[in-house]
Amino acid sequence: MKMQEKIIDDEIHEKMTLENVFKIFNDNVFPMLNNEEKDYCKELQDFCLELHPRIDKSQDVYVLFPELGKHGYLQRINKWKDFTPYGMKKEILLGTHLSLLDPQLELARLASGILCGNPTFHYYQHGGTGDTIQKVQDELMSGQKIGCIGITEPARGSDAVNLTTICTKTDEGVIYNGEKVYTTNGPKADYFCAYAVYDKAQPRDTMVQAMIKREFGVKTERLKINSVPRVHIAHTILDNVKIPKEYILADDGLGYVRLFEGLVPERLSIMGSGVGICWSGLIYGIIYTNLRQQFGKPVIRYQGVGYGLADLLTKTNAATALALQAASVYDERILFAEKSSEGKSAAEKWVASISSQGKYYLAKLTHEICYEVQQHMGGVSVTDNTPLDELTDISKIEEVIGGSRNIQLLLIQSQIQRFLRLL
Ligand SMILES: Cc1cc2nc3c(=O)[nH]c(=O)nc-3n(C[C@H](O)[C@H](O)[C@H](O)COP(=O)(O)OP(=O)(O)OC[C@H]3O[C@@H](n4cnc5c(N)ncnc54)[C@H](O)[C@@H]3O)c2cc1C
Description:
Blueprint: H1 10-13, H2 18-29, H3 35-51, H4 65-70, H5 88-101, H6 103-116, H7 118-125, H8 132-141, E1 147-150, E2 166-169, E3 173-184, E4 191-197, H9 203-206, E5 207-213, E6 218-222, E7 233-244, E8 248-250, H10 254-291, E9 293-294, E10 297-298, H11 303-335, H12 344-377, H13 388-400, H14 405-418
Helix pairs in contact: 3-5, 5-6, 5-10, 5-11, 6-10, 10-11, 10-12, 10-13, 11-12, 12-13, 12-14
């Protein structure tokens, strides 16, 4: 890693390698995995170790997309080409490893591969036809093209139902008029998976989900967001954007169904990124505090440091187990289950609720871990000599993307109220 000015002790620095991070990660997480999952992690780790020295942190993350594409690492929930294994647990492990490799790359990858890519898989799963969306999918999954999702608007953040972007039907397709904000990857994107409504008074019944090519007339302006300088995030203008029929993914209210169907895998995937950020912050802190000496002994031996890290390790393991378990249930009872299999609808309800609980807990935990580890490490952790400050910065974003903290709590609260029906 290039540093502006190196002050970290050589002996400590040479131990703070990605290879060593994986050793500690594996020691903690591999006992929770089966052989197929461990082999998949080893493949991911080989990939990360090979790519890591080639990452230039002065460049945007997008130059790395084709590298992800070569290995089918833009997403792993759905099967694309012959890339296996796949499923939600594999996606969680992918997000975890990419966060350990480069958390900003992981943010952009998730927006392109999952938030924009997943709707292309849903399109065919729900009976969509033709080659147009397949071509979009192939371009996104290969990393040759960049995707993003446009839900949030300047006046509609948490209230993602009452959209104000208007859709009008024509003989050729639809026309979108409106604005989106915080579109992750937007300034660089080739494809925008965006939502609009025919009637603002009836958004649920009239919502549309369409895949919009930049050439159709989308304009973007980059927002200045200091915490993720290598990811471009946009104010997106949809001014009379004409979208041909074959790019409509879900019409006449089905857009609303797909929007909410997409949120569960999206939140589970964000949990994967969060697991990686937690382990990354924690492991670099563990290595450093074991080697850094003050008053004649390693600082980890002081209770103020050691007990703090012990508390954070416990929380990280608990959150990892939750993410893996939620993904296992999603795979076994939903993704790979027969359409009408017994228990599927109960599993869907459980996963919907647990994805909010897990997203809430993990996103908040990323911040706690990174901030607290910085305090346990001392001054060096706020310099560019360790990855900690970049991790703390990105933890802020984890809380707000995919629905803010309160929106997760709102959803969990509505679950709690339903428990009364059990009595
Ligand atoms: C870096 C970044 C990347 C993002 N990427 C994307 C993207 O790619 N695509 C996209 O569409 N969106 C994206 N978002 C938008 C993100 O999903 C929204 O920021 C989020 O949904 C919250 O909306 P808001 O910021 O407008 O806050 P608001 O909805 O205005 O909320 C403000 C505050 O009020 C609270 N609040 C709102 N309603 C309630 C309620 N009913 N009960 C209790 N509290 C409430 C919120 O929790 C928050 O604390 C991104 C955001 C950021 C910052």
